[in-house]
Amino acid sequence: MKQGKLIALSAPSGTGKTTICKELLRRNKDWLFSVSVTTREQRDGEIPDKDYIFITNEKFDHLIKFGDLLEYEWVHGNRYGTPIAPLENALDKGKIILLDIDVKGTCTLMEEFEDDVISIFIEPPGEDINEQIESVQQRLKDRGQESETLIKQRTKRLQLEMEYKEKFHFHFVNEDLKKTADKIEKTIRRKIK
Ligand code: ADP
Ligand code: 5GP
After folding, report:
1. In whole angstroms, what is the distance from residue 191 CA to residue 189 CA?
2. Residue from 187, 157, 175, 186 nearest 76 by CA
3. Of the bound ligands, which one is closest to the alpha carbon of residue 102?
4. Measured distance CA(189)–CA(127) in Å, rounded
5. Is 80 helix (H, G, I), strand (E, B) or coil?
6. Is 18 in the pocket of ligand 1 (CB under 6 A)?
7. DSSP string, 24-54
8. Ligand 2 centre from 82 Cα, in Å?
9. Pairing state of beta strands 96-100 and 69-75?
10. What is the total count of domains within the chain?
11. Distance between CA 45 and CA 190 in Å, rounded?
12. Cβ(104)–Cβ(112) under 8 Å?
């Protein structure tokens, strides 16, 4: 049986990792997606239990108490967590499973699952941090799902997230969406051969 792998994709908010994750899953029907639990509100177009499992704070506490989450973090004022059972299942069955999680979540995943993890950091384009902030702000505005205040709050975290970059196995700049998805797919395929 082929060996399963956990593919963690992290990036500052607005870089494009959700879009890239969806494109990789569209191209590879046998790859799975780790559906996180979150206390944040559902966005227009999101499908419950496919994009996220939307739960209350009480339910989140319950999952922590019963050890159902591998890791959990507060990100942009909301709670997000990774259910452990689907990851173990995927590895047992020799499957590839993608995780769209924040930089701290990926670090925890690497500590817990070590060689079973491939970590990928995606950067926004820009010569320096200010240009990178501008490009994610523009992408979040174009996405049109958050207010100016929320967009500012999301981009405030960019510098902290960039500091984690060197901890990841691979880095990519998401300038052109198709080219980035091609490169990431190629890297994953090379590593799982
Ligand atoms: P994230 O999950 O990293 O917060 P999204 O995948 O939601 O980001 O992408 C944010 C917005 O940027 C979306 O509207 C998406 O269509 C757009 N986007 C993604 N990649 C690119 C790219 N390479 N160039 C321009 N816009 C992009
Ligand atoms: P969004 O609200 O834009 O969907 O996600 C906000 C951030 O939370 C993103 O960086 C996303 O990758 C991260 N995130 C989503 N699910 C999880 C999770 O289960 N654990 C952690 N640590 N971060 C997550």
Report:
1. 5
2. 157
3. 2
4. 30
5. strand
6. yes
7. HHHH-TT-EE--EEE-SPPPTT--BTTTEEE
8. 9
9. unpaired
10. 1
11. 33
12. no
Tokens 């929320």 belong to: 150
β-pair partners for 118: 7
pTM of the model: 0.96
| Structure-token pair, residue 156 | 């405030």
Q: How far is the CA of 133 from the centre of ligand 1 (A)?
A: 13
The CATH code of the domain that includes 49 is: 3.40.50.300
- What would the pLDDT profile of 47-76 be if each residue is shown by its tens digit? 999 999 999 999 999 999 999 999 999 998
pLDDT of residue 146: 84
Dump strand ranges (E) for the chain. 5-10, 32-33, 36-38, 52-54, 69-75, 78-83, 96-100, 117-123, 170-173
Full residue range of the structural domain in which residue 105 is found: 5-192
